[in-house]
TrEMBL record, chain A:
Keywords: Amino-acid transport, Cell inner membrane, Cell membrane, Membrane, Transmembrane, Transmembrane helix, Transport. The lineage of its organism: Bacteria, Candidatus Eiseniibacteriota. PANTHER family: BRANCHED-CHAIN AMINO ACID TRANSPORT SYSTEM PERMEASE PROTEIN LIVH (PTHR11795), HIGH-AFFINITY BRANCHED-CHAIN AMINO ACID TRANSPORT SYSTEM PERMEASE PROTEIN LIVH (PTHR11795:SF371). Pfam families: BPD_transp_2. InterPro entries: ABC_BtuC-like (IPR037294), ABC_transp_permease (IPR001851), BCAA_transport_permease (IPR052157). One of its GO terms (molecular function) is L-valine transmembrane transporter activity. This is Branched-chain amino acid ABC transporter permease.
From TrEMBL, chain B:
This is ABC transporter substrate-binding protein. InterPro entries: BCAA_transport, Leu-bd, Peripla_BP_I. It holds the Pfam family Peripla_BP_6. It comes from the Bacteria. The keyword Signal applies. The keyword ATP-binding does not apply. Residues 34-393 form the Leucine-binding protein domain. Belongs to the leucine-binding protein family. Keywords: Signal.
Amino acid sequence: MTEFLQQLVNGVTLGLGYALIALGYTMVYGILRLINFAHGDVYMLGAFFGFYAARLTGAAVEPNPLKAAGILLISMVGCGLVGFLIERFAYKPVRKSSRLAALITAIGVSLLLENGGLLLFGADPKFFPQIVRATNIPLGMGVTISNQQIIILVVSVALMLALRFIVLNTRAGKAMRAVSYSHTAAALMGISVDRIITFTFVLGSMLAAAAGVLVALQNPKIEPYMGIMPGLKAFVAAVLGGIGNIPGAVLGGLVMGIAEVMVVGYLSPTWRDAIAFVLLILILLVRPSGLLGQPPAEKV
Amino acid sequence: MRSGNGVRLALAAAFTVTLGIAGCGGNSPEELVVGEYGSLTGGDADFGLSTKRGVELAMDDLTARSQGKIGGLPVRIVAEDDQGKPEEAATVVQKLVNQDRVLAVIGEVASSRSIAGGPICQAAGVPMISPSSTNPKVTLIGDYIFRMCFIDPFQGTVMAKFAAQNLKLKQVAILKDVKNEYSIGLTEFFTKAFTGLGGTIVGEQAYSSGDQDFRAQLTAIKAKHPEAIYLPGYYTEAGLIARQARELGIKVPILGGDGWESDQLIGIGGDALEGCYYSNHFAVDNPDPRLQGFLKKHRAKYDNQDPNAIVGLAYDAANVLFGAMETLSKQDPEAFKGLSSSKAGSEARKAATKKIRDLIAATKDYAGVTGVITLDENRNATKPAMVLEIKGGKKVYNTTINP
């Protein structure tokens, strides 16, 4: 029982990372019907921005909570900017073209970021500094949680609540929802569709950056290709929850994280990556619209 | 439009190939080319970079001794990067043998990569000396493949003996890398020796190199309450695993093999590695004068850093090879000429590399910096192993275990 509960704690922390990345996928899909394959690489950039920010602020040597928060913020702003540039220079020019063109552009941007990262950061892995020193907190029954895991939990939930607030309670959020229904109708109502799309990209990229820093805090090895697998898994998580559905992305991420940890703990570690795609196939067979997704209404 | 693009692509490809051939062919000058391959980039880049340092230091000695020449011909080292991937290792060894026309190859550290590159050297009749691949399969490839280190059956036994006799442990769990021949081999030999000494393996978990998160496996291990964890992997994962183990409240020592040998190990694992042990080829605090002389050279060249065992093994490997070449130039100057790169592909070259092979195979009581090396009939070095303990952020010599 202890073992199971501990695995559950491990799975939830892993899953929150996927959930944060999945949110970016799902938001962009909701608005543009585009799978932004470069999103996993924005997550990688987030980890690297955090790494260099930690060096710059000296947080690696003498960590304190203020510096850690600063690092998270710098990384989020940096990736927000990257998200803006990607949207402006890669996706906007092909927005009127076919969806296939946009998809291939996304793959191109992904390759650009990976290999650009290779050029800029070098191929050898870097190790993210301990910007928050790890300590154990016993939860009773032999289950422990580290303070870093608690930070992941608190920050992710706070960011998700903030996102929920933006989407449901602000003018920009209302506009986002309107654009996701129909670009034309939203434009007729005086919404600047371009600006809302940019806003969505920036928001999604910031969440990916947060995921990058939070995950690197726990799993400190970072390298330019680190975004590929988590990116794919987060994409599966978004589909699992129902792509385009924000609570669905969070649920999908958690399911993925827990499933992965349980498979590794009780079956075989070589199944670690396979389970993601097994889940994807299952959900596509049983409930193609995802756990929380609405089946598309037939238009007559 | 489409066919136009296709033509353009084909043209570009053809152009690249032409350039490649033009760049590497031409008339070969009279020189002795020695190849080296290793992971200069990638997840375990420290292995390849360390090997390169060792070979460079041996080359410096040769320059000081005889202006970098053997038998009147200049020696040139060609180092290739295999990015830490076995498939890439095969490609770069092909390049070394076919394009650079090397007379011998030094490499690799990782057994899986030596196993990928070895057959190419064997087929071409080019001697290959692996400085530090410990999996038995490496030299079983053929009679042109050698190594300068002990092999895993011995290394696994060393750690099992150390755990059972020095640490007096009865219950050990194992966490192995299923993608790594080295790790699988060590697990097997450790298990055999440890159970033979009356111990029990209470749990065996696995991971794949490159994984980041090991909490699931460690949680499963923790539930079995072992007295130690044997972790025969490489330094990156060892450091990460140690940290995650401590986070989960696992306080028992972690034991490893020479895959832990890297200057980055403690940088990655930090305090989590305190009180852990691993078997290795040498210890820098060993007072042996040859070793100390080597340390001095290394510190002078690489801003005061201490070398790791891999540098030492590569240094020994290069010196054994240079020694064989020097001996041949004196014993049989006529045959020696066959080693020149201008003779590549000829019968004279084949005969010369065969003679080099025989000279390397005859290595006996060679006093290297990693101990006295004698090659056995399977072309493996027999020599003692050291156990190091990590104490106060440093690797400290603990004990020597003899074959």
